Every structure is written in C-alpha cells, then in structure tokens.
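Summary for the steering committee. The consortium agreed at its last meeting that each partner would contribute one worked example illustrating the joint modelling workflow. Our contribution is presented below. We chose a case with several input lines so that the handling of multiple components could be demonstrated. No manual editing was applied between input and output; the record is shown as generated.
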Amino acid sequence: MLLGIVRRIVSMAVTLFGVAVVIFVVLRLLPGNAVTASLGVSSGLLTHAQLAALNHFYGVGEPAVQQFFSWLGSTLTGNLGISLASREPVSTLVGAALPITLELALASMVLGILIGVGFGMIGALHPGRWQDDVGQGVSVVGLAIPSFVIGTGLVTFLSSVFHYFPASQGYVSLLQNPWLNIQQIFFPALTLSLGIGAAIMNTTRAAMLEVSGLNFARTARGKGVSTRVLVWRHLFLNALVPVVTMSGIQLGYLLGGTVIVEQIFVLPGLGRLLVTSINNRDFPVVQTITLIFATGFVVVNMLVDVLYTIIDPRTRR
Amino acid sequence: MSAAELSIRGLRVGIAHRHGVDEIVRGVDLEVASGEKLGVVGESGSGKTLTMLSVLQLLPSPLAVLGGQVLLDGEDLMHADERRLRAVRGGEVAMVYQDPMSSLNPLLRVGTQIVEALRAHGVPVEAARARTREVLGQVGLPQPERIESSFPHELSGGMLQRVMIAMALSTSPKVLIADEPTTALDVTIQQQILDLVSALQAETSMAVIWVTHDLGVVARLVDRVAVMYAGRVVEQAPTRKLFARPTHPYTAALLASLPGPEIGHRKPLHQIGGTPPDPAHLSPGCPFRARCPYAIGRCAVEEPGLIDRGSGSVAACWREPELWES
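What follows is the complete predicted structure of the assembly.
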C-alpha cells in the first residue's frame, strides 16, 4: 500500500517534469523573447548596450538547458518570477485567479455529477420510458452544443430578457459576499456542467444497464432485498468504476473549458489570465498557469486511481 | 403424497415478440412436498434453469412467464405483489445458482452479503452476524470468521459455491432450489454438501429441488426425479424406480450413458446420437423422435402427454417400456 503511494508520487513527478519540458520548449519556439515582450515595438529603439544589458537581465541567449533548470529551480522554491506585462509577481496574479477557477471547476463538477448521475440513474431504472427520453434529450443537448454557444446564449438571454448580469458588479469572493458570488459562479458552472453531465449520464446509464443484467444482481434480487439496497449497494456500487473514470476525464477537460467560459462570463480566473498572458507573450505567467493545469490533471488522475482501490477490492494489491 | 409445498402448474416460459411467441418451457408441471427432495435432470437447454428462475420471477428479460401457476402452499406467486414476492425470495424460497464465481457481488465482503440476506427478512444485525458465522461453518468452510471478511475474488469456486449454499440456507427457507450447485465442487466436498442438505432437511422438513445433469448425485440424494427434455417433463418417477425401470427411452438412454462401477471388463459407454432440438422451433410430434431408436409413425404426428406408468411414475411416450428393457 505504502509502496503503491510512493510509486504513484514518483510517476506523478516524472509526468510533471515532462510537462515542464514541453511547456518550456513550446514557449521558446514562439517568436519574440522576454525583451520584445516587455517593451514591444520600442525594443527596436534600444542601443546595443541597452539590449545587451536587458538580455543579460532576462537571461536571453543563455543555453536553453541552463535557462530551463534555472526556471525549474526557482519554480520549485516558490519563486514564480515577475509578470513581464504588469510587473507584478506571478504568484500574486495566479494567487488571485486560482481560487476563482477552482471554485468554478468544483461547482461545475458537482453540478455535472448531479445532472449526469441523476438522469443516468433515472434513465437506467426506466429504460425506454419517458424518464429515459428526458435524460437522453438533455444528454444530446449537452453533448451537441459547445459550451461557448451555451454560455453566450445564457449571457445574452439573461441580460436582455431579465437584465440580469451578476458579473457586471465585478467579481466578489465567496467570503466577501456569498450570495453574489454564488450567482456569479452558478451560470458559468451550469454552462460547463451540461457537457460534463451528458458524458457522465451516458456512462452511468450504460454501466447501470450492464450491471443489472449480471448474475450477482439476480442473486441480490433473489435474496429479497429492498429496491433501495439493490439499486445502490449492488447496482450503483458496481457501476461506479466507469462513472468515476468518466468523471476524472471530464474534470481534466474542465480545466480547458474554464478558459472559454471565464472569457464569456468575465470571471478573472486562471483561464482569462492565461489568454491575456499569451497575447502579451508574458512567458512567466503562461508557464506557471500551464503547469498548474497540468498538475491539476495529474492530481485528478491520481485521485481517480485512489478511488478505484477504495471502490474495488480487486484492485487493492 | 402429502400436500405440495411448492407446485408448478402448466408453466410456459418464452420470448414474446411481434410475430408470436418462442416458447422454451412448454408446460411444465412439478411438485415438491415439504421434507421431499425432487431431482430435475436434463441436458443443457432443456429448460430446467428457466423453470426454476420462474418460481421467483427472476427471469432475465426478454424471457418471461407466458402462462401457468407457481403455488407456494397454495398461494399463486404469479399474482403476488412486489412486497410479498420480496418476502418469498430468499425467505420462504431460497435459490442457489449456477456459476458461483459471478453470482456474488465482487465489491462486498462475503459475510456482508449473507447478513444482507438475513436483514432483508427482518433478522436484527447482531443475530444476522452470528447466524452468518454459523451457516458458514455448517457448509464445511474452515475458519468461518476469515471467510466472512473475504471478498469473493479471494475465495475458490468451491468455497464460493458453499458460501452461496450457506446464504440460501441462512434464512431456513421452506423450499430450497439448487441449480447445479455441486458442479464446481470435487467429489468429497460434493458429498459433504449432499449430506449437509439431507441432514438439514431431516431437521427442518425443508422441500428441496435439486437441478442437475449429474445422475450420480440424483441417485444419492433425491426421492423423486423429473427428467426434462426440450422444455417439458418427459418422465417423472421415484428415484429407485427410475433407475431400475426407466419408462421413457430418453431416460433409458441417459442411464445407459452412465459409467458403471465395474472395473476390468468395461463396456463402451453408450452415447445418445444427435443433438437436442431447440424448444422454440419444434416440428410437430415428439421432440425426441429424431434421436429415438423406438420411434414409430405416430411419434412424428402427435406429441405424447404424460402417461401413467404405474407405481408413481409417468412418462411422455407412446411406446411400451418393455421395448428398451434388456
């Protein structure tokens, strides 16, 4: 068990190192460097001495390997660098944006699981009946309409018909004004959760239907257990492995989805910061946010693995 | 015969679809009295398992009961509501299924699953735990405490089958239906289980239906045998009578295919030629006639019903049993 945990953490570290390399290389392949990014067109007016001094200051022209390890080293020691665009420490910028994205991702995930498992279970328990059709309808809508369409539609509809646009007052945190915060997060979360919910719904429904045809389900029924025990302890518990897998995959995609939805709903989260920073060639910020998304993905995958071993004793080894 | 504990009357099982029905069990009558052991014998596909699953209405869709009655102490279970059915399932009628490996929930401990069966019939938690340990010991599992906290994948097929039997016996049912319960077990364990069931039955006057294709088990355990073929009972007789003087050519052929005990001058085993027909697509006449050495013209035209052969046995055959007595 302990060995398993150690092995997981090591493999996580290896994955993240790989991600760091890829991020670093991709960003160096973009045209421009730290000097042009911070000064823009006016960098052409620099004298040779000024340019040399700035290049030295930013470490431009140093061997790539040395640049990489100096970045990695300072990142690991908590120094994320200074934003080239705003001159603020990256940790400050990211620190302000991260909780918003986390809240959005969590809220979307919870809503998505509620929608997905809820409709999936109802559909599987009444296959071919109207309850199933409602679920299938929601699923088709959720899968077929991309989140940016749902999002813009929702914003347009709410603001033009109800004159309701909670983001207009500027983002407030859950601690400052819980009620306004919930309103600000709910609609973007709903937008993201439809796609997630649809995927989880299909998985739940299929897994439930498959499991109810298995022999142990018949044994449970033959013991005379109540419908509640049959459905939750026997069927749902066994359907949970694919549902957890699908939820993990969706949570991974979700991090990407927040980029779009934060733009639409004007939430100052990581996704929005990322887009701005890419436009500004603000390397330190882009590197950090990409690394955070990658870490999120890896951590979610590990949690899914841990959940497997909790659910299924056959995977405990 | 005393009043039947469980009686199946005219049971028909099949798949109903737009163009009609495919009948797989075509009118089966079976009875078992309390304290009696009935054996149901037949090849795979003869409808024995479907008949048994129908008793507790556990047929997998699209299979369904098309007609007939299942009477438990005179109460028709086909018209029982869900609540009553739940009380009967695992309570008054318990079942042991084929394939123990897949018949237990892989994610729950074995003990939990037996406790659950008891809890479903109103046994308090503590009593259910104690009873679980007791029955696990009764079916000859060593270290019941260890078995109880094992997951199904940690036990062998034979152990799981005994767990299934323990689970069925835990609620002291009035009727035990065992569907090929000893197929996965080796001969010594098999004998243990048979002895256990016999002993329990002597104590509790439970009625037992033992479904098997193993005539050896039948000979050792049951009082009466029903032979099924192509979705019907073709012969029913007291065990001793059936083995001594089979009154249906199919039974006679089954018995001839048993290996004898004699060592040394072994005679070659008899084999029944051909394959059993698909009960859903039968041509008129006796379904066994294509494989029957005694078939006559009438067999191709008219399917025989069960005909009384005297001394408690019936058989569905037009011909005289003297023909195959050698």
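Chain A has a mean pLDDT of 86. The two ends of chain A are 7 Å apart (CA to CA).
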